[in-house]
Write a structure and sequence with these properties.
By secondary structure, the protein is α/β, with parallel strands linked by helices. Helices cover 36% and strands 26% of the residues. Helix 2 crosses helix 3, helix 2 runs parallel beside helix 4 and helix 3 packs across helix 4. The protein is globular, with a radius of gyration of 18 Å. 40% of the residues are buried. Bound molecules: adenosine-5'-diphosphate and magnesium ion. The site of adenosine-5'-diphosphate has 10 residues, from helix 1. The site of magnesium ion has 3 residues, from helix 1. It comes from Boseongicola aestuarii. This is Maltose/maltodextrin import ATP-binding protein MalK. One of its GO terms (cellular component) is maltose transport complex.
C-alpha cells in the first residue's frame, strides 16, 4: 500500500519558487529521509504534506486519498519538530495525554495509550515531572510520545535531534529506529546529518534548490550517485 504520493508539487512564496515539480511515493512502513542543504525546501515539503502550507499546484495523497483540502488535524499524520514545545505547567503524562483529551477520547483509551507510549519510550520514572525537570533527550522523547499516542499513520520529523548533543543524538536515533519497527509506522525524516540519513533510511531523497536530485537506498546513493552534488552529500566520490 502507498502511504504517501506527491504528484507535481510546486510551492511558491510570492515570486519565489521553493518547490519545483516534486514527485514521490512512499510505501507503508517505509522510513524515508529527506536530505539537502539549508534552504532547499525540506521543511516546506513536510509542511505541504502535513497541510500546514497549501501547495501552489500538484496533489498530496495520503493512504490513497487526495487530501489537498483536508485540514492538518484530519490527515492522520503527526509532526515532530526540533523545538519540543511542551507545556511547561503540565506533567509528562498530561503533556502526552493532551492531544487525546482534545480529541475527546475516553479516559480508558487515553490511559492505555499513554501508558504504552511511556513504556515504549522508557519514560516511566518521569511521568509526574514537569518538562523543566527533564534533560533535552527526555523532553524530545515526551514530544515523540505525544505524537505516538494519537496513532498516526504517518510520522513527519523535521530535524528532531538537531538541538541534542552527539551522544544523545545517537541514542535517540536508535530509539526512533526501534519505534518505527515496533509500530510498523511510515516515517519521513528531515535531516542535514548524513550519518542520520545513512543509518535510518530505507530510502533517501536528496533535495537541492526545490527539486529532487535523486531517490534511492543509502547504498544505491553511496555507490551510484547521479552527480557530484549527491556524492558530496553522502560522502562517496562520484
Ligand atoms: P530547509 O528546511 O531545507 O532549510 P525551507 O523549506 O525552510 O528549507 O525553506 C526553503 C526556502 O523557502 C527558503 O529560501 C526560505 O527562505 C523560503 N521560505 C520558507 N518558508 C517561507 C515563507 N513562509 N515565506 C517566504 N519564504 C519562505
Ligand atoms: Mg528546515
Amino acid at each position: 500500500m502507498t502511504a504517501l504520493a506527491l504528484t507535481n508539487i510546486c510551492k511558491s512564496f510570492g515570486p519565489v519558487e521553493v518547490l519545483k515539480d516534486i514527485n514521490l511515493t512512499v510505501e507503508e512502513g517505509e522510513f524515508v529521509v529527506f536530505v539537502g542543504p539549508s534552504g532547499c525546501g525540506k521543511s516546506t515539503l513536510l509542511r505541504v504534506i502535513a497541510g500546514l502550507e497549501d501547495a501552489t499546484s500538484g496533489t498530496v495523497e495520503i493512504g490513497g486519498a487526495q487530501v489537498n483540502s483536508v485540514p492538518p488535524a484530519k490527515r492522520g499524520i503527526a509532526m515532530v519538530f526540533q523545538s519540543y514545545a511542551l507545556y511547561p505547567h503540565l506533567s509528562v503524562r498530561d503533556n502526552m495525554a493532551l492531544g487525546l483529551k482534545q480529541e475527546n477520547q475516553p479516559k480508558s483509551v487515553i490511559e492505555a495509550r499513554v501508558n504504552k507510549a511511556v513504556q515504549m519510550l522508557d519514560l516511566g520514572a518521569y511521568v509526574d515531572r514537569r518538562p523543566s525537570d527533564l534533560s533535552g533527550g527526555q523532553r524530545q522523547r515526551v514530544a515523540i510520545g505525544r505524537t505516538i499516542v494519537r496513532e498516526p499513520k504517518l510520522f513527519l520529523f523535521d530535524e528532531p535531534l538537531s538541538n541534542l548533543d552527539a551522544a544523545l543524538r545517537m541514542n535517540t536515533r536508535v530509539e526512533i529506529a526501534e519505534l518505527q519497527r515496533t509500530l510498523s509506522a511510515t516515517m519521513i525524516y528531515v535531516t542535514h546529518d548524513q550519518t542520520e540519513a545513512m543509518t535510518l533510511a530505507d530510502k533517501i531523497v536528496v533535495l537541492r534548490d526545490g527539486r529532487i536530485e535523486q531517490v534511492g537506498s543509502p547504498m544505491e546513493l553511496y555507490n551510484n550517485p547521479v552527480n557530484q552534488f549527491v556524492a558530496g552529500f553522502l560522502g562517496s566520490p562520484a
